[in-house]
Amino acid sequence: MSTKTICRNIRNTVALCVAALIIGVIVAALDVVFGKVLFALNDIRIANPWYFIPFLPLSGLVVAYIYNICSGECYRGMALVFEAGHNERKSIPLRIIPAAIVSTWITQLFGGSSGREGVGVQIGAIVGHRIGRLFHIENAPKILLLTGIAAGFAGLFQTPIAAFFFALEVLTAGRLEYEALIPIFIGSFSASYVSHLLGLPAFKYALEVHTHVTWSLSVKLVILAIIFGLTGGLFAYALNGFRDILRQKFLNKPFLKIFLGGILISILLLIFGAGRYAGLGEPLVAQAFAGKSLWYDFAFKMIITILTLACGFRGGEVMPLFVIGATLGAAIAPITGLNPALVVALGFVAVFGAGTNTMLAPLFVGAELFGYQLLPLFFIVCVVGYFFNGNKSIYAAQKQEMV
Asked: Which of 4, 24, 262, 378 could form a disulfide with 57 if both were Cys (CB 3.0 to 4.6 A apart)?
C-alpha cells in the first residue's frame, strides 16, 4: 500500500470520527428534547386518563393528517432507514424527524401504546445519512447512518455498548457491519454522555443477585429463553402480519383506519385498567420488579401495542418489548424457583432480542441496566431466545444473512 493511500485512509478515518462525534452531540440533544417532553406527556395522561384516552380516535386523525401533509413515503419511517442502510435509496426525507416526533407525542398523550426508540433511531439515522452524503468517502452515508442509529438508541436509553452492537447487527441479521466500527463507537458513547449531561432520565435497576451457573439453573434458563424467544417472535410476526392485513383492508383510507382503530383501542384501554397499558408502559416494568404486576399484563400490553402501531399511530416497538418481556417474566417467575426480579430482567432483555432478531445488543442491555455480574445468565437466554424466535423481526425490512 502506497504512502499516499495510507494518508488518504487516515484522513478519511479522522473525518468520519469527527463526523461521528458531531452526530452524537446533535442526535443526543434532539433525543433529550423528544424524551423529556414524552415523559411529561405520559405523566399528564397517567394522572388524568379519562381526560385523554377517550380522544384517541380524534388524535389519530391528527397523526394521519401530519403524515398526509408530509406526502411521499414518510409514513414508512423505519423501512426507509433500512433501505438507505442497504444502499437501496439515496436519501431519507428530513421532514420525517418532526413528523415522527410530534406524532409520537400525540399518540402517547392520548393513550396509544408505543415506544420511543423508533423515533430516536430515525432521528439518528437521518442526521447521520445526511451528514454522510456531504463526504466523498466510500460508503460514508451508510457508515454514518449506522452511527446515527447507535447515537439515537444510546441517547434515549444511555446504554452505549448495547447501542453499539444494536447498530452493528440490526440491518442484516447474522452479519455485523464492521466497516463502521469506530464511528459507531464514537457516536454511541458521545450521545450517551451528552444525553446524561443534559438530564434525560435513564432506567437503571441494580439487581443484587450473585449466582453460579449450575446444570439445574442452565436448564431453567434454556426453558425461559425458549418462552421468551417464542414470545418475541410472535410479537414481531403478529405486528407485521396485522399491519399488512389492515393496509390491504384500508387501502388509501389511512384516516378511516386510524380513527376506527383509535375507537377500539380507547375502549379496551378504559375497560381494562383505565389506561394501564397506555403509553410507554414504564410503570408496568416497575410493578414487575416490585412483584405487583398481573399475570396477564404481558398479553394485554402486546395486544394493545400491536393494535396501536398497526392502525397507524406512531412510536417505537422496543420499549413495548421491554415491558412485555418484564411482565411475562413476572408472570412465570413463581413457577421457576428463581429470584423473581432476576426472571423479570431476563424477560426484559430476551424478548427484546427475539423481537428485534438481535443477540449481542440485548446481552449488553442486560449488563448495562442490571449488572455485569449477570452476563453469563443473559448470554444463555439471549442466545437460546435468538435461536427460537423464528427469524422474525419487528423491522420488516431487516435482511437475513444467507449462510
From this structure: 262
